[in-house]
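request received
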Amino acid sequence: MSKPAVMVIVIGTTDISLIPGISVAGATPEMTHYTPALDVEYLIYGRPRTLDIIPVTPTGIPTPALVTRAVAYDVPKLVANAGSRVPPRCPYVDLGGEPGRDFRKEPALNCGAAEELVQRGTALGEELGKLGVVYIGESIPGGTTTAMATLIALGYDAWGKTSSASPDNPKELKTQVVREALGRLGRAPPLDPLEAVCEMGDPVHVAAAAVALGVAKAGGTPYLAGGTQMAAVAAIYKALGGDVARLHVVTTRWIVEDKTADFYGLMEAVGVRHVHVATVSFAASKHPGLRAYEQGAVKEGVAMGGALYYAQLIGRDALANVEKEYERITNLTRRKDF
Amino acid sequence: MSKPAVMVIVIGTTDISLIPGISVAGATPEMTHYTPALDVEYLIYGRPRTLDIIPVTPTGIPTPALVTRAVAYDVPKLVANAGSRVPPRCPYVDLGGEPGRDFRKEPALNCGAAEELVQRGTALGEELGKLGVVYIGESIPGGTTTAMATLIALGYDAWGKTSSASPDNPKELKTQVVREALGRLGRAPPLDPLEAVCEMGDPVHVAAAAVALGVAKAGGTPYLAGGTQMAAVAAIYKALGGDVARLHVVTTRWIVEDKTADFYGLMEAVGVRHVHVATVSFAASKHPGLRAYEQGAVKEGVAMGGALYYAQLIGRDALANVEKEYERITNLTRRKDF
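response:
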């Protein structure tokens, strides 16, 4: 019984994504602030509303929301906004947070906002947990950097261990950013969980952790659907008193095979026992934009791994569905370059 | 199979509730603008957050949210904010609407807001409809007046046929309010559905209709959980192209037995075929505040009828649960006067 009763996509932004070179979750650094809104608008409506642009990487590889929409079309989806500079124009649960700031210069969040995210996220999880298995995904450009920072702030050795949506993981830049944040802080980790989040986190990971806490509290089973960022979510969940033995993580083969990161090492460090991997390959796709996933582009996001794992569980042909949707959106946007 | 997979409470305010004597959904006319937020905060958390006050009528009879919380504790609940002057401090789905204005003086809603409510409400319903049966409740003080106005604007003879949370239905005042609105409008009904809503409606009924539309579109079954207001919701649903034969309404005995209104007449006029009634009596309660329900206080709201009907379906002792919760909140608020 690991099929999702419902899927929650927690979105938000961090100004860390504006640092040139740190995120490819958008065509330019500025566009990364639109990516979460566009992702979920597209996921819900089949086309974005805020701008008529489906998010792509700088080399034109489309958002993982495409895969989630294509293969998990029959799973109820809820968007939860933890703090996005661009609020989405679709139904979304307001968790009362705020966008994350550049934590090299100042704390990422006001602690009041982080506390509100914990309170509302837990309450949302408690309702949804009554349904059973809840998949919890994310869309936050810059999230692998904030995940590394949060894990380090919580006392884990996560230096250079988080993944990237780029085939060329900018690990030195990320490491430098986290070092600068620690320098500003002027104290050595570990910090307590809310302090770690407020100083060096972002709105999404703490909100996702709170939803997972609520799901478990209600007797449901939380599945964190994402890559190495979910180690940070699991670490916050654990630090807030969650039973990590009840937590599941579900992701893609592209994440676990990423040699620039250490997905399993992070999961082991945090104590996550239940890891599920979607094993599908896009190598045989007729579309270069999808074959790029096999070269390490994108890898995760918007619960793609969870959606693919669900398809695997029920025997649905993921690639056929993804190709069909890929063709639909290519026609929709009249772009031939991806 | 009429048990709810999930329950959505659509909230909002209308300035119609500020007209003295029109609504008892709050201790004073001004307090009615807090009622939806306090209702759902209490429903989700077990105690309100915006103010430490559980909504009561001017004579101290507690909100129907008490009953919903007490008897449907295992049903997942989602709050959807269609437009409330006081946004609730709990997780809620933002449907992009706005509070309703006093339609004696100006249109109730900007049509852009009403269209957004239709779009987002339908999208939310399409997701939740994948779960099966969706109960859709409301909290909007003044809602029986806006319901009468909307029905009349859509061409139904609803004059004096909607109910009231008061044992003394202020029908003349309501009728006068609707007449003034028609006078301002200067045109005879019927209006087209969005125009009826923008001119003489409120944010909640159109949003609830949109959620129901989406649920039906996704193959689920929409249950409107409320009293005579749901005739307006059903009429909007029908006017927007919804198949009224697929729509269910579930309410309390207190509504259908209300001699000051005509619940069944309105349902028949709109064409609703499936009506379910919770038959529980509070006559044997040891608490005067609950026995007051038998004298026509409150009657419906916050999906109370749906919650009681659900208890009836599964054989749960509603009154015992309600009394226990009543005692808990009486101690919580340290008030002995209700």
